[in-house]
Short-chain dehydrogenase/reductase superfamily protein
Amino acid sequence: MTLVFTGVFALVTIPLVVVAKVYSSVIKPFNWARPNPNPTSILITGASYGLGAAFAKAYAGPGIHLALTARSEDKLAETRAACEAKGATVMVGVVDVTDQEAMADFITTVDEAAPLELVIANAGVSEQSVGLAKELEASTRRLTDINVVGVYNTVFPAIDLMKTRQAGQIVIMSSLAGFGGMPASTAYFTTKTAMKAFGYGLRGQLNKYNIGVTTICPGFVRSEMTRINKFPMPGLMDEAPAIAYMMEGIAANVSVVTFPWPMYLAVWYMQNMLPDDARDILFMPFLALRNRRSSSTNKSD
C-alpha cells in the first residue's frame, strides 16, 4: 500500500516540480530584488581551484574588478594572472574562510576599492566519511568550519555593506547533496543541506533591501575537485557549460539553480518520496563500508 501511495504521489508531484522549476528559471520572479546581469565588482572565495577559478576566469574582462580568496597562494596567483590577461583588475587575499576577522577585513578593503555587487561564497571541501566514530566527528567539525562557518564569514560582512546601498547579490554554493543524506558522506551532505536552507531563508530576508540571493545546487562537474573521485559520477558535466548555466541563473536572480535535471529529479524523488525502509535498502552498499577508514578529501578553496 505504501509503495502504491508513493507511486501515485510521485505521478502528481513530479510534474508540479518540473513546472515550478521552469517557472523559476524562465519567468522573472515578481517583486523580487532586481537582477544585475552585468556585475562589475565581484568577490569569489575558493578561487584557486575548480569552480571558483572557473567563475573568476568567466567573469574576468575589461572594466571588471575581481576580489579572489584562497589558501593556496601559488594557485591563486595563477588564477589572478589568467584574469588579468583578460583585462580584469584583480585583488587577491590569501585568507582562510574560517578566519572571521581576516575575512571581514579583506571584504571591507575590497569594498572600499570597488563596492561589491556580487559575492560568490564558493570555498568548500568534500570528504568521504565512512570511518570510525572519531573520524566522522573530526570530518563533520572540519567540514562545518569550512562549508558552513566559512560561508557565514563571507556573506555577513558583505550583507552589511550591501544593505547600506540597497543593492547587491549573494550566491551560496550548495549541491544536489543538499537534498538529503548518504551514509558514505554524512558530513558533506549535512553541510550542503544546511547551506541550501540558509540560502532559501536569506533570500526572503534580504529582499526588502534589494539584495538578491541565489543558491546553487550542482551535480557532478568535471574539475580538480571531482577528478580524484573513485566512484561513478552520473550526469558528470563539463566545467564550461556548467559555469555558463550557473552564471545565467545568477544573472536572472533565480532562487535556486539545480542541474543536471535527471540527477536533480532522481535525488529529489529518492529523498522525498521513497519510504524509509526502501531508502535503507538502497543505502545498504554504503553501510557495508562502515569499517573502512576515510580516504579522500576534495578541495575547492
